[in-house]
Amino acid sequence: MKGVKLSRDRDGRLCVERFPLWRRVEHIAVILTFTTLVLTGFPQKFYDASWAETLLSLFGGLDDARTIHRVAGIVFAVLTALHLAVIVLGAITKRIRMSLVPTPQDLRDAWQNLRFYFGLRESQPKMPKFDYRQKFEYIGMVMGSLIMVLTGAILLWPVETGGIIGGEALAASRIAHSNEAVLALLVLVVWHVYSAVLAPDVFPLDKSMFNGKMTVEELKHRHTLEYERLFPAGDPEVELAEVDGEAKADGAEGAASEAPAAKPEEGEPKTPAV
Amino acid sequence: MDCHSDSEDSLELGDGTEVSVSISEEHWKKNVHAGEIGCTDCHTAISDYPHPDVEAKDLRDYQINRAETCKRCHYAHFTRVADSIHYKQFEEGNRNAPTCVDCHGAHDIAVPGEPRMAVDERCAQCHAEISDAYRRSVHGKALLESNNPDVPVCTDCHGSHQIKDPRNADFHAASYQICAKCHSDADRMERYGLNPDVVDTYLDDFHGASNALYAEGLGRPDKKLATCTSCHGIHDIPSFKEADKSVVRARVLKTCRECHEEVPDGFQDAWLSHYPPTLSEAPLVWLVKWFYRVVIPLIMLGLVLHILMHLWRFRFRRPGGHR
Asked: Which of A119, A133, A171 is closest, CB to CB, to B282?
């Protein structure tokens, strides 16, 4: 058992920590800013829709909605910058495991998974901590955020940036900002909501991004490779008892559910769990 | 009529002015009302002879009071006038603000707006400078030179009775809709080889979308809003059909700088000449637009298919092993 915080849920099932607290806070911050940006941004894109008027008046008119949009955008940009800074720092200090970086194996997983869907394979391929679908969404989210932050900054300071990038790029930024927003919202509503809320295997909600935990049982089925990595001996209960015993022998306090982590996993980029 | 045609009598008003009471039959016959209503229908105080004294202080007073007469039949027009900037001026004490007879005449009331140039002439009685500018514009020239029925005269943009103050923010924000009446009319634009997308392309841009929302009443801009007239002018709108591109672009940049003082040269290229982006004119914008046009449906199709396959496998082909 290496480097993972264990706990038990209310039913006494053993759980691994999937997302540390600050990742969960980051996720909630993203939910809030993203929602605000959508609610204040889309009525500007679809200015002639009747709901645009209703929505904007909720925010106190166009000018107030724009101010809110810009503030939320700046907050979102800071979140994006922090997120990337953690990855860069983590990569330099080697304290981060790049569990969300796509690898050739992900392509093979996708192919095998499709074969499984078509009935050409009896079982799903063994997935790592984050499977190819989650990596796709995560990378999409990071790339999309970069595009939104960049074009958003250009649109916020058109005079200053126009001198550097030229007038035509201003028009292109506007098109990119507005289309990327549509893409982001569609992926979120269709793909993320399906995989984290509506999919039969997680319905009614995959809570791991909110309580940070996933049961070892679920981990074993859905992220088998990660399970095997964490519990190479194959029986977490036995391993837990061993660690627990050592802890007690050291005179440490705490219940079995608070097993100490040898090396807390830090800096794993957030992703919604499927 | 017997007494008043070619009469040399005159009437003394309160301030001592003498007003001729003569009216020629020829003059009266020009009146759209001729044959429909009689003298006393308007001159209601007069029922027998000798006529009662006229109570007007002066001629202007008499003219203003005629509105009461017109109102008896044209009440709807009267109420519209009551909402106008002209009536507001009158209420504020400007006795020269136009009343019915100033525009329509008295005994020679003609069908309004015929000929169309007559509208301009009437407004020019007070708004001479604006009329001069209008006559220099592409619209005014076409009317003067060929009596073009498609170009606007004063009332087409300002209305006739319910004329609003064109200097306020509401009028400014809604003014693109006035231009759109003709310039979004594809048939009318085709007759002159003009681009019918000018208003739509404006609205799809940042200033246009803001303008549309402000026009819906979602707040009031604290800055001057760039609209059609900001670049094209108001009454002296020139034709840009044959204009040199660089001249037009220089004009746009000048307009940008009216609000965004610091904008660098080249800023005007953010404006795509009222046309959708093309590969030759605005390659970067075109590429970005088509990139998303292709990528969004492709990604979404892929994701939806993936979801459907997942559901299908889950529902019908649930394997014996783990889920």
From this structure: A171
Determine the average pLDDT of the residues in A203-210. Answer: 90
Same domain, B171 and B250: yes
Evaluate if residue B111 carries a pLDDT over 80. Answer: yes
Nearest CA-CA distance, residue A171 and chain B, Å: 5
Q: Grade residue A269 by pLDDT with cuts at 50, 70 and 90.
A: very low
The answer to whether residue B177 is domain-embedded is: yes
C-alpha–C-alpha distance, residues B14 and A163, integer Å: 70
Interface of A with B in 25-54 (CB under 8 A): 43-45, 47-48, 52-53
pLDDT at B318 over 60: no
ipTM for the complex shown? 0.84
CB A34 within 8 A of CB A76: yes
Note down the domain range covering B312: 278-323
Q: Which two tokens stand for residue B188?
A: 């009318």
The answer to whether residue B284 sits within a structural domain is yes
Contact B266 A199 (CB under 8 A): no
- Kindly state whether residues B266 and B320 are assigned to the same domain: no
Domain boundaries, chain A: 6-258
How many domains does chain B fold into? 2
Q: Does the pLDDT value for residue B292 go beyond 60?
A: yes
Q: What does CATH list as the number for A6-258?
A: 1.20.950.20
Residues B237 and B287 in one domain: no
Burial tier of B16 (Cβ tally within 10 Å: 0-12, 13-18, 19+): exposed
Interface of B with A in 203-222 (CB under 8 A): 203, 205-206, 209-210, 212-214, 216, 218-219, 221-222
Looking at the fold, whether B272 and B291 belong to one and the same domain comes out as no
Is residue B304 included in any domain, yes or no?
yes
Of B216, B269, B285, the CB nearest to A175: B285
Interchain proximity B299–A114, CB inside 8 Å? no
Considering just the CA atoms, what is the radius of gyration of chain B in Å?
30
Over residues A155-171, the pLDDT tens digits come to 999 999 998 999 999 99
Closest residue by Cα to residue A180 from B295, B270, B202: B295
Check CB contact under 8 Å for A180 and B216.
no
